[in-house]
Specification:
CATH architecture of the largest domain: 2-Layer Sandwich
Largest sheet: 6 strands, antiparallel
Number of domains: 3
Pfam family, one: HATPase_c
CATH superfamily of the largest domain: GAF domain
Keywords: Kinase, Transferase, Two-component regulatory system
Structural class: alpha+beta
Distance between the termini: 143 Å
GO cellular component, one term: membrane
GO molecular function: phosphorelay sensor kinase activity; protein dimerization activity
Order of helices and strands: HHEEHHEEEHHEEEHEEEHHHEHHEEHEE
CATH topology of the largest domain: Beta-Lactamase
Helix content: 40-55%
Strand order of the largest sheet: 8-7-6-11-10-9
Protein name: Signal transduction histidine kinase
Length: about 575
């Protein structure tokens, strides 16, 4: 007997409301709900991965140092794809891996592995064909070379190229997916997206590095320009050039080789090393044609050589690393070459470094030309000074000695007239004293440094007054004037001389003016004597008062007196403390 009555509440046999659905429909609804939950989970997971991708993109763009940026990219890729190991290989111009940055391998294990890979085997797949590569087991690939000793085992693999515009900068390698047998398509897509953002970050870091290097080169060139504004000594200038070139290029060795066109030889003039090595290279002479520098010498080109050790027959060991050779040329005149070499194992200098070094070498060539011009000018000044002294000795000293000899010779027949003989002997002695003073003056001028030109300035002041006077004043210079008179006294001495000559022009009406400058006994004395109408010493005013004040400023004296037989004598004297 059946009953249609509803089972009481709490009855375990009571069924849930069917909502008018058949059992089959309820199963399908459960599947749809589960699928919806799975989709929601996938959306949430994708959202989290996208947020992680965004955080990674922001993170790798916060540092402008290239090496730190590359390391951040590897770490972010491992986190996003769930990889245990990661690496980033930078591709060089020769299509080999020049730099290999790893993540997940302990430092001690990394050291035990040895040299980094060069881009063969599976790693070379992306170099030959820069497209994403994903495989479940790298060891089963036909091009697998196997792992070196002490290398951790790896199976699942994901490789993605890193592009900077159309240029492949390097490759991103991930291995051993954690929690799964292999990397998924989602892993590949998110790593490809990271690689695209990483290319921008790498380009920014490279541009920043180039700008920073350019700034350092410009600062070094500005320092060389500062040297050009002052007195340039060739060896000092070349040493500074080599040191700054090595420091800015972060190189191991810098050489400056001067070129002898007649002998076709290069001579090592300056050596600057990071550790102070290779001093025995100084003075090394190399036949230009037997070196790798011949192209730079012949055609004045900037060249890059792979090994400095193989570039020339060096007498001692030098670094075997790459080097940049820049000619030191101003116009068509080649002075030498600048060689900047890196340590063995370093990569060849980039295309950005060569023009920067070339610009710096141009500044260095100007420094050499200025140093050479200064040396030639100083040599000409020495030769002109020697010629002037020789002319003075010939025209004054020798002629006076000859006249004195004739005067003494003419006194021999006058032995019966002692007063005449005495007078002639005294005159000869006076002439000999004057000759001795002239010779002493020439000796002092020979000992005087070329930078000292007080005698020249005194002569110029006297020559300037000759036009107004109508005749040239007689000038007598006694003692080491150029070397003994300090710089603090020179301006006052010249001012006093010009004022005294100006007074002689305006007031003396003289036919003869004598200027004497003497350094003796620790004092400098200037005397200006004329044979004019004379002046009252007690009525001195104006410019003459200034002369007295200039003397007092140096604890000196100033005096005006009448000259004999007529005229005025001005005497200005100060002690020499330096």
């Amino acid at each position: 007997m059946t009953s249609d009555a509803t089972p009481p509440a709490g009855d375990p046999h009571r069924e849930s409301p069917s909502l008018g659905l058949t059992p089959l429909s309820r199963v399908r609804l459960d599947e749809l709900l589960q699928e919806m939950l799975d989709r929601v989970g996938q959306v949430m997971a994708s959202r989290e991965r996208l947020r992680a991708l965004l955080d990674a993109v922001v993170g790798i763009g916060t540092d402008l140092d290239l090496h730190s940026t590359l390391r951040r990219i590897v770490e972010a890729a491992c986190d996003l794809a769930g990889a245990r190991y990661g690496a980033l290989g930078v591709i060089g111009p020769d299509r080999q891996l020049t730099e290999f940055i790893t993540h997940g391998i302990p430092p001690e294990a990394h050291a035990a592995i040895g040299d980094p890979p060069h881009g063969r085997g599976v790693l070379g797949l992306l170099i030959a064909d820069p497209r994403p590569v994903r495989m479940p087991d790298i060891t089963q690939h036909p091009q697998s070379y196997g792992f070196p000793p002490n290398h951790p085992p790896m199976h699942s693999f994901l490789g993605v190229p890193l592009r900077i515009r159309e240029h492949v900068f390097g490759n991103l390698y991930l291995a051993d997916k954690q929690g799964a047998r292999e990397f998924t398509e989602d892993d590949e897509e998110i790593v490809v997206a990271l690689a695209a953002a990483a290319g921008v970050a790498i380009e920014n870091a490279r541009l920043y590095a180039v700008a920073h290097r350019r700034e350092r080169w410009l600062a070094a060139a500005a320092e060389i320009t500062g040297v050009l504004l002052g007195e340039v000594r060739r060896t000092d200038a070349l040493t500074l050039i080599a040191r700054r070139a090595r420091q800015v290029a972060e190189a191991d060795l810098a050489l400056v080789l001067l070129y002898d066109e007649d002998a076709e030889q290069l001579t090592v003039e300056v050596v600057d090393s990071a550790e102070g090595r290779s001093p025995r290279l100084l003075g090394t002479v190399l036949p230009a044609e037997e070196t790798a520098f011949a192209d730079s010498v012949t055609h004045q080109r900037h060249t890059v050589i792979e090994s400095l050790a193989k570039a020339a027959p060096w007498p001692v060991s030098v670094t075997a690393g790459p080097a940049v050779v820049s000619p030191l040329a101003a116009g068509d005149q080649l002075s030498g070459i600048l060689v900047v070499a890196h340590a063995d194992g370093k990569a060849l200098p980039s295309d950005d470094d060569v023009p920067l070094l070339a610009s710096f070498a141009g500044q260095a060539a100007l420094a050499l030309e200025r140093a050479r011009a200064q040396e030639e000018r100083e040599l000409l000044a020495v030769l002109e000074d020697r010629e002037r002294i020789a002319r003075d000795l010939h025209d004054v000293v020798i002629q006076r000695l000859f006249a004195t000899g004739l005067q003494l010779q003419s006194a021999v027949p006058l032995g019966n007239r002692p007063e005449v003989v005495t007078k002639r002997i005294n005159a000869a002695v006076d002439d000999l004293d004057s000759t001795i003073r002239d010779i002493r003056r020439a000796i002092f001028e020979l000992r005087t440094p070329m930078s000292a030109a007080l005698r020249t300035e005194i002569r110029d002041a006297v020559d300037a007054a000759a036009g107004a006077l109508g005749f040239r004043p007689v000038l007598e210079l006694v003692g080491p004037i150029d070397s003994a008179v300090p710089d603090t006294v020179r301006p006052d001495l010249l001012a006093v001389l010009r004022e005294a000559l100006s007074n002689a022009v305006r007031h003396a009406q003289a036919e003869k003016v004598t200027v004497g400058v003497q350094v003796d006994g620790g004092r400098l004395t200037l005397t200006v004597t004329d044979d004019g109408i004379g002046t009252d010493p007690h009525q001195a005013r104006g410019g003459l008062v200034n002369l007295r004040e200039r003397a007092a400023g140096h604890d000196g004296t100033f005096e005006i007196r009448r000259a004999e037989p007529r005229g005025t004598a001005l005497c200005w004297s100060v002690p020499l403390r330096d």
